[in-house]
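Handout, section B. The chain below has 202 residues.
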Amino acid sequence: LYVYNPLNGSKTEMENVSDNLISRKGDLVAVLTEKKEKDSLSLWEVKMLEIPSLKVSTVDSKRGEMKQLNSDRAAGQLVWMFTSDTVATRTFDIYTYDRRRNRVTQLITAATPGIPQGFGPSDRRRPYFSEDGQRLFIGTTNLPVEEVKDTLLAEERYSLDIWHWEDPLIQPQQKLMAPRERFRSFLAVYHFKNNRLVQLAD
């Protein structure tokens, strides 16, 4: 990613960028970067580029995966999702950064009070702030269940689809919608004033 100032011709390069945003006022660029390494988890970082000073600072650095970067309207807070899981069925946590306090907080996990039992933050819905920055809206979803390992061969496994005549959807439609239903998320809101999460939909 290149940030170019047409007034003085200066240019700043930010490498290995996977996600980025520009503040509404144009005074801040925030990015997620990934540095891949052999035989190890990728090193992910949250970085900020302040404009017009072009000062680059690292907000957070962890091994795993980061995604879904966002900010509030005033660019005083950043939010992103992170996981250090290496299995196929990964769960993500939500982190925030307060620029005024210069503090990173692990804000929401599957264990946060207010999230339904068996649910956790959904990495398929980008968290976003309310206009005043006092609330954070997120998606929650069923936690993935890791398949039990066994010694059966692929040809020895059986699958069974069950349909009942009172089901609201016919079987072909159920199969077609299965991927979407599997990753469906439900809206929830976190109130910063009282540190409380409320599930809005289920």
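Note. The CA atoms of residues 99 and 120 lie 26 Å apart. Compare this with the example in section A.
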